[in-house]
User: What shape does this take?
Amino acid sequence: MSENFWKDKYPAGIPAEINPDQYPNIQSVLKQSCQRFADKPAFSNLGKTLTYGELYELSGTFAAYLQQHTDLQPGDRIAVQLPNILQYPVVVFGAIRAGRVVDNTNPLYPARPMEHQINDSGAKALVCLANMAHLAEEVVPKTGVKHVLVTEVGDMLPLLKRLLINTVVKHVKKMVPPYHLPHAVKFTQAMALGRGKIVREASPTNADIAVLQYTGGTTGVAKGAMLTHRNLIANMLQVKSLMGSEMNEGEEVLIAPLPLYHVYAFTFHCMAMMLVGGHNVLISNPRDLPAMIKDLGKYRFTGFVGLNTLFVALCNNEEFRALDFSSLKATFSGGMALQLATAERWHEVTGCAICEGFGMTETSPVVSVNPFQNIQIGTIGIPVPSTLCKVIDDDGHELPLGGRGELCVKGPQVMKGYWQRQEATDEILDADGWLKTGDIAVIQDDGFMRIVDRKKDMILVSGFNVYPNELEDVLATLPGVLQCAAIGIPDERSGEAIKLFVVAKPGATLSKEQVMEHMRANVTGYKMPKAIEFRETLPTTNVGKILRRELRDEELKKIASK
Assistant: This one.
């Protein structure tokens, strides 16, 4: 397929190319946007709004603290382990302005994966929420972290409200387990120390790493995708250009229920929205639907970024259906496949069509999106500007249009590689810059693409990658387990759910409760199995490799015959 194939596939007004070198680094985008939209709201949470001007000032305060009160150097990694609260953009942009690399870390991690990621990234500092500080107490001594900053939920709020919320969270709701981190610095203290100090603005090149974003890649061990300043700026410009026609600068109000530590929400809300001066309403806990809907009722929101699971939950909620959607003009879906029934139901409830897209951590993340002007439900749209796609067969040969093969992507948003894992990088990224996605796709004559299958055994739970290897490794450490396998089974709510198969050692007795308890102690919530089945044997190849695909096919047959 020629490079020119995509050129005429974009609706009128959308350029086929962007200039990824338009800005030297993220700092310059931030500075320009914060000056341009100084009085416009940037982020809101818990009833408090930060303007772009305030965001610039506060991120400068945090940057000054890092530079003048720690021994961290440019290029050092900072693990940021925060939910969607106002501290998140302040810390992230402050770290970037100080020339540090942001290591986005899931705040719901149990100790084991948290320890792996911090050690793998070589992070020297950790910013976490007090609610998770007990885990930091356990993990930090096993890592190279020298500086721990702890923040409480309400730390960005006015004094009385701050005291009230922090007291309720700690003492009434009992959401902060006791912890002992004698050398930790409180976020409020750090901000007081940095206030009024001069920031020495870092000026990294566009090839320098801005963010380490962890992913399982094709196997279970979490790897850090090195996303450079150029990668993220390219993706910001790509997303903006594809939705630009619908977005009015300084006027858009976007709901942000997906976690900012996840690359999809991070790039959209913290990066792309900066360019249009968007107002991001941060939802700290989307699982608490009543609280979220109450929040939504306060804003005349124009955009919503979600995924299938969340759309379903909201459309089934009476209070949500009663909201005013007259301003809503853009809904974006990513992270997991959008079901046709969900898209139709959302349109029925809100009057707004959903633009589905496709992305990966390794592509910063957006590869393709359905343009507003021409939505094809069931497709992942067309590649964002300056992006090429092709499908290849098992031997690596490119297939003609309509052929079914592995989707490969090339563009300025493709990562530099995996952090300190050259071998893993070489497996996925070739010398010409083509990245293998692991997804089986078809490219249509009109340039729109469909994902038809997945090459890998990965399970996709509500937009999060779950790798069977990781679950099996954890389960194998439970005494009495001889063999085990993890597969994904269809699930109306989360797209896929996890089912575990267990073969017990001769003479050992294992119960579902024991398995669940063991998993609960060692994996994050979304990686918990929904079903467990004990068997005498598991299907294997002649060399003893367990055939997960066979187990999955069995399950699908069972479901089909019901």
About this structure: The chain has 17 helices and 25 strands. The first helix runs from residue 26 to 36. The domain at 54-203 is CATH 3.40.50.980 (Rossmann fold). The first strand starts at residue 41 and ends at 45.
